[in-house]
Amino acid sequence: MTAPEHRAPKQDRSRITRERLLGASIDLLATQGWAATTVGAVAAAAGVSRGAAQHHFPTREDLITAALGHMIEQRLEDVRRGGLDVPDPGPERTVAVVGFIVQQYTSDLFKAALHVWTAAASDPALRERVLPLENHMSREILTIAAAALGRDPSDVRIRRALQTTLDLSRGLGLADVLSDDSVRRDKIVRFWAQTLDTVLCEAGDPSPADTANAPF
């Protein structure tokens, strides 16, 4: 009868160790890059033994892809649960949605992921592991953005416009890697929001039912 009481603290310690390793992986990737983010380096940064790290993640690829997957899903879940803080329908709402998309690709998580994508470009096995993560993130961000605008993401025009916004955001994320590009980026966000508003107008206003059923 006492076994569960003994297991629970061990399970908690295991979960905490795992989360520390995942967080340290993202931090190291964002600041030091792929080559420096070894299992040993992550273990040291997380304050755990290398053996404990390898117990959870036998290889660097296991560790890093798990870290990216965990952090991406955690960030998306926070947005799904809390929703986007967007104004009422109008130009400022579009600016807020475009700003949300751009923020996803100028964050430390994107900087960490960028190092992995670069390594995966010449490593087919790693590419097979990280490409689904990138695709999942893109799909979810697009869906969240469409819902915040009260639009149907299956509409070809809406989907194409939002996909273009994602592509633009990746470019802004790359520009932000080498220097603080925030001032120019804010101007581009507003300019692109105006362009996106034009597409939304051409696509027609969403029906009241569509707006009422939008989750954000």
Compact description:
This protein has 216 residues and is mostly helical.
Overall form: elongated
Q: What is the number of independent domains?
A: 1
The average pLDDT score comes to 86
CATH class designation: Mainly Alpha
Class of secondary structure makeup: mainly alpha
Strand content: under 5%
The major beta sheet can be summarized as:
none
Total of helices = 10
What is the first-to-last residue Cα distance? Answer: 46 Å
Helical content stands at over 70%
Mind telling me which CATH architecture this is?
Orthogonal Bundle
Low-confidence stretches: 1-6, 207-216
CATH topology: Tetracycline Repressor, domain 2
Give Rg in angstroms.
Answer: 20 Å
- DSSP strand count: 0
Order of helices and strands: HHHHHHHHHH
Kindly describe this structure.
The structure is a single chain. Helices cover 79% and strands 0% of the residues. The chain has 216 residues and is an all-alpha fold. It has a single domain (60-213), classed as Orthogonal Bundle (Tetracycline Repressor, domain 2), CATH 1.10.357. Helix 5 (91-104) runs antiparallel to helix 7 (124-148), helix 5 packs across helix 8 and helix 5 crosses helix 9. The termini are far apart.
Keywords:
216 residues; elongated; mainly alpha; 79% helix; disordered C terminus
